[in-house]
Amino acid sequence: MSALTVDSLTAALHDLLNNEKYEINARRLSSMLEKKPVKSEQLVVKWTEFVAEFKQLPELESYARQLNFVQLTSLDIVVPFTLVLAAALFLVYKVFRALIRLLFGGSKLKNE
User: What residues form the membrane-spanning segments (predicted)?
Assistant: First the structure.
């Protein structure tokens, strides 16, 4: 990571002002903004009129507003999946442990 110094800032500004690709991109973006199909002012007026005419629109509200916390955070899916996964891993652990004891002589004698 390079540090911000006077020299690096000067070099970056010099590149920005003298590199032709930045000018071409800026002109292209300016042209696109001038020729966009719907002007921002027209769009604001149309949406304002739409809202004024129809007031509240439940059809446009997010369905997530109707869900409870458990459904919204997918706990009703994640918790059972996690429990099944934990049980499966525990079962695999027990099976491998039993196989290792069976194969490598798991009985140990206690010294008294």
Answer: 77-96
Give a three-class secondary structure readout of 32-49.
Answer: HHHCCCCCHHHHHHHHHH
Model-level pTM greater than 0.90? no
* Residue 108: predicted pLDDT: 58
Q: Is the pLDDT of residue 1 over 60?
A: no
CA-based max dimension of the chain: 93
76 within 8 A of 70, measured Cβ to Cβ: yes
- pLDDT tops 90 at residue 37: no
Residues 6+ apart with CB under 8 A from 69: 75
